[in-house]
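User: Please predict the structure of the protein below. I'd like the answer in structure-token form so I can feed it into my own downstream comparison script.

Assistant: Understood. Taking the following sequence of 178 residues as input:
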Amino acid sequence: MKQRKITGILVCWGLLAGWLGSMALQVDAQEKASAVSNGAEVSIEYTLKLDDKSVFDTNVGAEPLTYVQGSRQIVPGLEKALEGMKAGESKQVTVQPEEGYGPVQKEAVLEIEKDKIPEEAKQVGAQVQGRTGDGRVVRARVAEIKDATVVLDFNHPLAGKTLHFDVKVLKVQQKVAN
């Protein structure tokens, strides 16, 4: 009789241990599912500052930025820093130019004749838009005005800059495989 009771207790303990183990696996799977990982749709709130602490961009109090992790929709350095974060988590991230918008490329600065620029764009800082020979739209910033020419900078405005993000993950949704 004692042996039967002990066997029953051991079976109950075994079932309980198995149940608890499966619950732990389910919780672990749920935690991984809610973490930022490749293929997940992620919504974030951010403030982007430059080295001088000036705010370049923010979406705080506005629509969140939603992107798919691993799809190169945001700068690589920020995407790497968000990997593994969960909804509700915040962090500060510093992104060097090589992991942001890249270094300033000297070959992306061109000098053209002044008469090829619209009159309203003949001031430093003005934005101009044009098309390449194959029809692609290109944008440039007027970097300098000279006597007969205008210097156009085709680099991204954040090229060569270190980026400082205050970022909060608002939502992580894993894509369902079909």
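That's the full token string. Confidence is low (pLDDT under 50) at residues 10-17, 22-32.
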